[in-house]
Amino acid sequence: MSAGTLVKGECSISTKICKEPTTPPAVFGTDTEARSLSSATAINSNELTHSVAPSISASSVVCRICQTHSAQEVLISPCNCKGTLAYVHLSCLERWLNQASRSYCELCMFHFNSIQTQRYGFCEGVRLWIRHPRNRSHVQSDVVIAALLTTVTIGLITVCLLGMQYFVIEAKKLGITQGWTKGFVSGFLCVILLGYIVTLYLIVRDQFIPWYNWWKNTVDVRLLLTPSVTKMAKQNNKETST
């Protein structure tokens, strides 16, 4: 065998080796095994998702006011709010409505079925209003103004009534009759009294109207839950407790 023949043989062998296709290593074995394994993985993932989702949603349901979930008090959904803002404790909602002095939801403007009672009596409301530091200074200043105005008005009326005869005598010296003199003095007294009454009315009005609005709107709100809301609250409490 010559050297040329040996070289040709080696080239043909190497060419065959290069032409042979390379098969990738089997990862899952056959195609059937791969499909069964992928479907099993998807089922396990789906079961895990369904098992975790309820626990996450249940733990996320809290009272929108106190941001807690107490097992002693059920969560209710008394208005038209949706999502996590729909749930609230009855005691938290009543306390919030009493502090805000309203009977409707400030988010969805739903008016609750409630009973409103006046929180303070008339005398107690006046006493609390005057004791407030911001109102006390205004009341004190108005009382001082009213006292000074009353003193000046009484003094002018007294002088006019006691000096009526003196004014008549002096007017006669000037050629003015007694009737005209008494008419001028009486008109002056009417103007003084009218100015005093109007000023006193404005002072009382500026104090009374703000107090009356506060006193009238300061009420205790007690909600009346419908049977559907109560039933839904019990169902939500069972779902969140499980």
TrEMBL record:
<keyword id="KW-0808">Transferase</keyword>
<feature type="transmembrane region" description="Helical">
    <location>
        <begin position="143"/>
        <end position="164"/>
    </location>
</feature>
<keyword id="KW-0833">Ubl conjugation pathway</keyword>
<keyword id="KW-0479">Metal-binding</keyword>
<keyword id="KW-0472">Membrane</keyword>
<keyword id="KW-0863">Zinc-finger</keyword>
<dbReference type="GO" id="GO:0004842">
    <property type="term" value="F:ubiquitin-protein transferase activity"/>
</dbReference>
<protein>
    <submittedName>
        <fullName>RING-variant domain</fullName>
    </submittedName>
</protein>
<keyword id="KW-0862">Zinc</keyword>
<keyword id="KW-0812">Transmembrane</keyword>
<feature type="domain" description="RING-CH-type">
    <location>
        <begin position="55"/>
        <end position="115"/>
    </location>
</feature>
<dbReference type="GO" id="GO:0016020">
    <property type="term" value="C:membrane"/>
</dbReference>
<feature type="transmembrane region" description="Helical">
    <location>
        <begin position="184"/>
        <end position="204"/>
    </location>
</feature>
<dbReference type="GO" id="GO:0008270">
    <property type="term" value="F:zinc ion binding"/>
</dbReference>
<dbReference type="Pfam" id="PF12906">
    <property type="entry name" value="RINGv"/>
</dbReference>
<keyword id="KW-1133">Transmembrane helix</keyword>
<dbReference type="GO" id="GO:0016567">
    <property type="term" value="P:protein ubiquitination"/>
</dbReference>
<dbReference type="InterPro" id="IPR013083">
    <property type="entry name" value="Znf_RING/FYVE/PHD"/>
</dbReference>
<dbReference type="InterPro" id="IPR011016">
    <property type="entry name" value="Znf_RING-CH"/>
</dbReference>
